[in-house]
Amino acid sequence: KNQVEQSPQSLIILEGKNCTLQCNYTVSPFSNLRWYKQDTGRGPVSLTIMTFSENTKSNGRYTATLDADTKQSSLHITASQLSDSASYICVVRQTGANNLFFGTGTRLTVIP
Amino acid sequence: NAGVTQTPKFRVLKTGQSMTLLCAQDMNHEYMYWYRQDPGMGLRLIHYSVGEGTTAKGEVPDGYNVSRLKKQNFLLGLESAAPSQTSVYFCASWGRGRHEQYFGPGTRLTVT
To answer: Which of A89, B6, B24, B55 is a Cys-bridge partner for B104, taking CB atoms 3.0 to 4.6 Å apart?
Structure first.
C-alpha cells in the first residue's frame, strides 16, 4: 500500500534553534517528493521538490534531503523564526500518476 | 495573477442540503484537483480533472460530484450534505510538464 508517514506529529522549539522533520514513504514507483508548508487557515505552499537523482535541496533556511534507497526524507530548518510555526507536509508523487500521496504533517510551533 | 481561488471561504449547511464549491485558476493549468483535509489525516483526493470536459474519481469520491466545463474552473458539488462531509476543502491546479501543484486558500464546510 502506498503510504507516507511523518514524524514527529508535533514539535515545539525555541526561536533561533534548529530542527529536523522526518518523512518515510512506501510509494512506488517513485517520481518526486515535495515538502509543503501550511500556515493555519491557508492552503499548502511548496518549499522544495526533489526527484530520484537529487539527495539534497535548499530553499533559504529550509534544507530537504532524500534517500531514495531507504525511502526516507528529512526537512531541516535552521535558525527557526516565529513565522516558521506551521504544519509541514511531505508529499510523494508516483511515476505516471497525476495524483499525490500526502503525509499527515508535522505541526511545528516556534516560541520566543 | 490571482493563482487559485476558492468560493466560498466558509459555509454551514444542514443535513440534506446541497451546495457547489467553485475553484478558479488563472495559470492555464491542465490539471485540477479537489481534496479534503480532516484533523489527523493527510489531504485526501476527492476528484480530479486532467482537462476541460474530463473528470475522474480520487480516493474518497462518494457523496461528491464535479464538473470541468471550462479549463479555468473546477466545481465540486454536494447533492445531499452529510455531517461526515464536514471538512476543509482545498482545490489545487497543476500545469502539464511542471512539478509544482498550487493550492487555493480552502473552504471550511460545516454540516449540522
So the answer is: B6
| Opening angle at CA A42, ends A86 and A91, nearest 5 | 65
pLDDT by residue (tens digit) across A19-29?
999 999 999 89
Q: How far is B76 from chain A (nearest CA, A)?
A: 17
SS (H, E, C) chain B: CCCEEEECCEEEECCCCCEEEEEEECCCCCEEEEEEECCCCCCEEEEEEEECCEEEECCCCCCEEEECCCCCEEEEEECCCCHHHCEEEEEEEECCCCCCEEECCCEEEEEC
Q: Per residue in A48-70, pLDDT tens?
A: 999 988 999 999 999 999 999 99
Q: Which of residues 36-65 of A touch B (CB under 8 A)?
A: 41-46, 49
- CA–CA separation, B58 vs B44, rounded Å? 8
Mean pLDDT of chain A: 94
Grid-cell match 480532516, residue found: B38
Residues in A closer than 8 angstroms to B41, CB to CB, are 104
Q: Find all residues with CB under 8 Å of A97, minimum gap 6, and list them.
A: A31
Shortest CA gap A80–chain B (Å): 24
